[in-house]
Design goal:
globular; 800 residues; alpha+beta
């Protein structure tokens, strides 16, 4: 029986080539898009889940409650905290720590300094927690020996080529010679821990203060993880943490300093408010939901296409169905026949989809920032995902047409007197297609507008041609004024300034608490950067009142400049000359000498928070950057001159530099990717809907040929007939616009809420989306409609 069903299904598809082609193309595009989106979603949702103990590994998160109105959460803590938890808290089986020093290390290799930025330092039991795959070396001993270094496969190839790196010695300029003890397979992209070089903490533990640092409750820098016993409740463990603060921390109370545990598999998607994490990559649960929604929308549109085309063909298959029923076919058999036809169509689409995915995967990776590929290891799993999507779409889209067609009465079918409500259903489904397309277009336009808004938004400082050079040497910090003077003499360098952080900062910024009175219990939490006297001019900050630093190290060290947000937060009416008090260690009273206009020193996702600008000689933070305003037509020559000056003062590390505007753009890479994917999804949605619309129009016109002929005989012009045929589609688009507008607005508002500074959502956006769908609809059906209006009535009516 099944064999006959498949034979009939193939004959039907061969007989109706146009119908089959439209459905196969629509299903193929739908399956391809849904599969790629689900690859993306599955990758995002499975971060860190390849570790065998991922369900029992937790990160220690510290929170600062000294200001209850502004609680701060940190992804790192003091190294001694995890030691105390392991020894004092039942239910914790083990702990490990990872350290991520700032900047980069230089490895001397074959006479050159090779810069490595993505390196970590870890405890010897790191691999008892994390199951990164070893290519060479011993997991148990790789980090136990002093001066051990582990490379990933790519790093090993970079340094050693085809040679075996195990046992080879490398020179780390900052410390000692280190020996390669293991090589790891390149880390999976969906790991929040990313590195190409891993050093053993035993390498530096015996340095001055190493052991003291590891037991400290005052110093920071440890990204700490604990392994809980599977039978332990997290809350029971966390309830013990206040006792640890009381016992080990002599400076804070349990009410001020708190700790909690975060499941490792939640770090990527649930760390938006956590500072000082070990990874810059943070996922967004809203975007995950958004992509799931797009995948569902695409599958709905594909199913609607199939349902509409299948029910539109019902009159052409009425006699076939009538004959089958008269011959004894049951309703169940007819349903099975039509479902198998649908599944056969889906199977051909499945084959075409695999080819499309293979072709499109590199482009999808480029847009999505992923590295998916089809290989021998994953081809079966990926094919299974695609096949399941195919089977679902084939069954879901074929079920309603099978039900409708199986209900046709044999007598009426054989007479050609078929009456169903499928026309109303088709009209409703077309409205749903149009509504989904409008929602997608509104979303794409809103995202595009926001990205343009970000691109054109005045940030409150000059970022053009601003070259930022990192300070990675104590010698440079001690002699920065001499180096700054020489940098200013390089041809093409217009201005030079020094600071601890720069506007548009991507690293963590120091924070302090301000008090307007030393005895006051109320304080304002504020960011803190240190500037030299050239920073305001170099970046063109607008000084609203007061004065800049004078350049006198003694007097300027007790001066501070505030932004407008800080003045407002402290309720200072006449701030110039007033004294404030910092919470930072060794800091005394600071006199306010100026107020600068608010500027965006962080992403536009964030509000402008209070910030204090101290002089470079201050008790809070040290200088970390040179900012060079360039005005040159020969950048390579200017860069060579800058590099030559750098190498005079820093003989141990290579120069690390970047353009500020490029770094600021990195804030929005993820948003830009989402915008691109959303725009592509909207276009694909329209294309899929267009396939179905073209097919439905073709069948509708075939059914109405005689009506068109009669109208032409009675005097209707071609324009009148075109207007008549377009009229129903115009109504459907208008109804869809009314349905889609509220949902589109909800989505646009939700997405825009991710930004503190955003473009206003205009009514024009909705009108443009509706107009685009209207024009697309008319263009899609125009060929068939215009040809129908030009029909010769004699050819149509000659058989009557």
């Amino acid at each position: 029986m099944l064999k006959n069903y498949f034979k009939i299904a193939l004959r039907t598809l061969i007989k109706n080539k146009t119908y089959a082609l439209i459905n196969i193309l629509g299903l193929s595009v739908g399956i391809t898009c849904a599969s790629l989106i689900l690859f993306y979603v599955e990758d995002e949702l499975t971060y860190d889940q390849f570790h065998s103990q991922h369900e029992n590994i937790y990160r220690i998160v510290e929170s600062d409650h000294s200001d209850p109105s502004d609680v701060q959460y940190y992804g790192q803590t003091s190294p001694g905290v995890s030691n105390a938890m392991l020894s004092d808290v039942p239910g914790i089986d083990d702990r490990t720590r990872v350290f991520q020093p700032g900047g980069h290390i230089d490895i001397l290799w074959k006479g050159d300094k090779e810069q490595v930025r993505d390196y970590l330092i870890a405890d010897h039991n790191f691999f008892d927690f994390f199951d990164f795959e070893f290519i060479a070396g011993n997991k148990e001993s790789a980090l136990k020996d002093k001066n051990s270094i582990i490379l990933t496969e790519s790093a090993a190839e970079r340094f050693f080529g085809k040679e075996n790196p195990i046992g080879q010695t490398m020179k780390w300029t900052e410390l000692h010679d280190v020996k390669v003890t293991a090589v790891l397979k390149d880390l999976p992209d969906n790991s929040h821990l990313q590195f190409s070089v891993l050093l053993s903490f035993n390498t530096i533990q015996e340095e001055d203060g190493g052991d003291e640092y590891l037991s400290s409750w005052r110093s920071y820098g440890a990204h700490s993880y604990v392994l809980l016993n599977p039978s332990t409740h997290v809350q029971a463990v966390e309830d013990k943490f206040p006792e640890l603060v009381t016992k080990y921390d002599k400076r804070n109370t349990p009410e001020e300093r708190k700790f909690s545990l975060q499941k490792m598999e939640e770090i990527y998607l649930d760390s938006e408010d956590i500072q000082y994490g070990i990874t810059e990559a943070k996922g967004n649960a809203f975007y995950i939901k958004l992509f799931v929604g797009i995948a569902v929308f695409i599958m709905i549109v594909v199913c609607i296409n199939y349902v509409n085309l299948s029910t539109a063909k019902s009159t052409q298959r009425a006699k076939e169905i009538g004959l089958r029923k008269v011959s004894g076919a049951s309703k169940k058999q007819l349903i099975s026949q039509f479902l198998i036809e649908s599944i056969v169509l889906a199977f051909f689409s499945f084959l075409f989809s695999v080819l499309l995915i293979e072709i499109l995967l590199p482009y999808f990776n480029e847009v999505a920032g992923k590295t998916f590929d089809l290989n021998q290891e994953n081809i079966l799993n990926i094919s299974l995902i695609i096949f399941c999507i195919t089977l679902f779409l084939g069954t879901a889209s074929g079920f309603y047409p099978a039900l409708v067609l199986s209900k046709l009465q044999p007598v009426a079918s054989l007479k050609g007197e078929v009456k169903t409500n499928s026309m109303n259903v088709r009209s409703s489904l077309v409205v749903v297609q149009f509504a989904i397309s409008i929602v997608m277009l509104v979303g794409a336009i809103v995202i595009y507008q926001q990205m343009k808004f970000i691109e054109n938004k005045a940030l409150g400082f000059d970022q053009e041609n601003m070259l930022v050079v990192d300070i990675n040497s104590g010698n440079v910090r001690r002699n920065f004024e001499a180096m700054k003077s020489q940098l200013a003499q390089v041809p093409g360098v217009e201005k030079v300034a020094t600071s601890s952080r720069v506007p548009g900062e991507w690293k963590n910024i120091s924070r302090v608490d301000f008090k307007s009175h030393q005895a006051s219990q109320d304080s304002v939490n504020s960011y803190f950067m240190c500037f030299d006297e050239q920073m305001l001019d170099t970046y063109q900050f607008e000084l609203l009142e007061g004065s800049n630093f004078t350049g006198n190290k003694v007097t300027d060290s007790t001066k501070v400049i505030l932004n407008e947000a800080a003045v407002k937060a402290m309720n200072l009416e006449n701030p110039i000359g007033q004294t404030i008090y910092l919470s930072a260690r060794n800091s005394g009273p600071m006199q306010i000498i100026g107020v600068v206009k608010d500027f965006h020193y962080q992403s536009l996702h964030n509000d402008i928070a209070p910030i204090a600008l101290g002089y470079w000689a201050n008790p809070v933070t040290a200088i970390d950057y040179f900012s060079l305003k360039l005005n040159t037509s020969n950048f390579s020559e200017t860069l060579a001159g800058i590099n030559a000056v750098h190498d005079k003062f820093d003989t141990s590390t290579s120069m690390e530099w970047h353009f500020l505007d490029n770094q600021i753009n990195n804030f929005y890479v993820n948003d830009q990717r989402i915008g691109q994917l959303f725009g592509i999804g909207a276009v694909i949605m329209l294309i899929i809907a267009g396939f179905g619309l073209f097919g439905i129009t073709s069948y509708m016109i075939d059914r109405r040929k005689k009506e068109i002929g009669v109208r032409k005989v009675l005097g209707s012009t071609g324009i009148q007939l075109v207007a008549l045929l377009f009229k129903s589609y115009g109504k459907q688009v208008l109804i869809a616009f009314g349905v889609a507008a509220p949902f589109a607005y909800l989505f646009a508002s939700e997405w825009s809420s991710l930004f503190t500074y955003k473009e206003t959502i205009s009514v024009v956006v909705f009108l443009v989306a509706g107009l685009v769908v209207m024009l697309f609809t008319f263009l899609t059906v125009s060929y068939r409609v215009i040809n129908a209006a030009r029909l010769n009535p004699v050819d149509v009516l000659k058989d009557e």
